[in-house]
Amino acid sequence: MHVALPLYMYPSAGTWQPLYDALNNNPQVTFDIIVNPNNGPGGSPPDSNYIANISQLNSYSNANVLGYVYTSYGNRSLTDISSDIDTYQRWSTYTNYNISLGGIFVDESPTTLDHYSYMATIYHKVKRTMSHGNLVWTNPGVPVDASFYMVADMISAYENTYDSWMNGGNSSIPQALRSKSTVMLHSYPSSTQTMASDVDELVDAGYYAGLLIVNNQYSSFDSMWPTFVSEVGQSNADMKC
Fold this sequence. Notes:
Layout: E1 2-7, H1 17-25, E2 31-35, H2 48-58, E3 63-70, H3 78-91, E4 103-107, H4 116-129, E5 135-139, E6 154-161, H5 162-166, E7 181-186, H6 195-205, E8 209-212, H7 225-240
Parallel strand pairs: 1-2, 1-8, 2-3, 3-4, 4-5, 5-6, 6-7, 7-8
Helix pairs in contact: 3-4, 6-7
InterPro entries: Spherulin4
Protein name: Spherulation-specific family 4
């Protein structure tokens, strides 16, 4: 299982250090990292702090960096979304540093099948445009019809509280879809007692990527972050034995 990480904090001095520590200490774990400079790409190139830190992330073989776009649950124009994707692609042409991306994270994805063609358009735009990496990771945040997996490489099929997951959410994603599904759980109890078993459950169930955090936002690293990443590495290793 990969580590899913919405990295929505500005890269001021030291802010991303817990991520660099995790990448260094867990080289066997793959991190799928979403950067979001300005509710999307912002400028091309981004500012100097983003340039320096995205370049640093790209120096790690176990880091896959994706750019954030949003759809407002299908209400945002495809022209605007396409423009954001074009901007992210231009990052790959920046010659001073390697700030190319491995794909696009599509937030606030619609959940109803009347938006299927809308999502297919975004999927094919990414595949045609992104020259370095063209992974498409969508985020409806809830389980969706299996057909949506035809227009995504992976889907964030559950983004909610840990309690909601334990009270039925963990049985809401069909087994056949889990290898392309990610799970992001917030409001996790600030205790290590159940972390190992909870991570084992996600790995054993076959999810593509996961995240457990104590707070309910992605603006800082919490005290459980190193433990979570370490447990992912251990559980992945146990699965291979």
